[in-house]
Design brief:
This protein is an alpha+beta fold. It has 4 helices and 4 strands; from the N terminus they run αααββαββ. It is 49% helix and 20% strand. The chain is rod-shaped, with a radius of gyration of 50 Å.
Length: 182
């Protein structure tokens, strides 16, 4: 017999609906993630390529200018260190003469040749005895290697006028530079 009233068809289970919507959301999320990750990957590759290109370039113009400037300063420092290494401190001669002068001897002039290590001294004294004492004072000094009497005469008012040549040890002119510059 034919039924006049239709029967209600059984509906889908609630869990199947939840599973369908969850799968649909997961599919949309997967597609969106693919495009986002693809965009990030392309952007990262672009940054990496730019960095590799900048590393591949040797130097920027600013770096070249700075390098030339630094090399110029480095050369100046090297030249200065060579000059200071060759410097002779000739002011020690004044201390040497002051320390080794006889009280009765008056030095009127001296000439220093620091390259040849020779001091030419002219002066006057009252007698040959004080002149001889002055010679002994110079001979006693370790820095004096040789003494030559260039000229000796009896001058005005009976005073002894003389010119001495002192060959001195170059160590008197040594200059100690505390730091080596490289």
């Amino acid at each position: 017999m034919v039924e006049i009233m239709p029967k209600k068809t059984p509906g889908l289970s609630k869990w199947i609906n939840i599973l369908f919507y969850f799968s649909l959301a997961l599919l949309i999320f997967s597609i969106a993630s693919y495009f986002i990750l693809d965009y990030s990957l392309k952007k990262s590759r672009k940054i990496l390529t730019d960095l590799e290109e900048s590393l591949a370039r040797k130097e920027t113009p600013e770096e070249i200018v700075l390098e030339k400037e630094i090399l110029g300063y480095q050369k100046k420092i090297k030249d200065f260190s060579q000059l200071i290494g060759q410097h002779l401190e000739t002011s020690e001669v004044f201390n040497f003469i002051q320390k080794n002068s006889h009280p009765s001897v008056w030095f009127s002039q001296f000439n220093l040749d620091s390259r040849e290590n020779i001091i030419l001294i002219s002066g006057t004294t009252d007698s040959f005895e004080t002149f001889n004492q002055q010679l002994l004072i110079f001979k006693r000094e370790n820095f004096v290697q040789d003494i030559n009497i260039k000229k000796i005469l009896i001058g005005k008012k009976g005073k002894i006028e003389f010119i001495l040549s002192l060959s001195i040890d170059p160590k008197i002119f040594s200059f100690q530079f505390s730091q080596k510059i490289e």
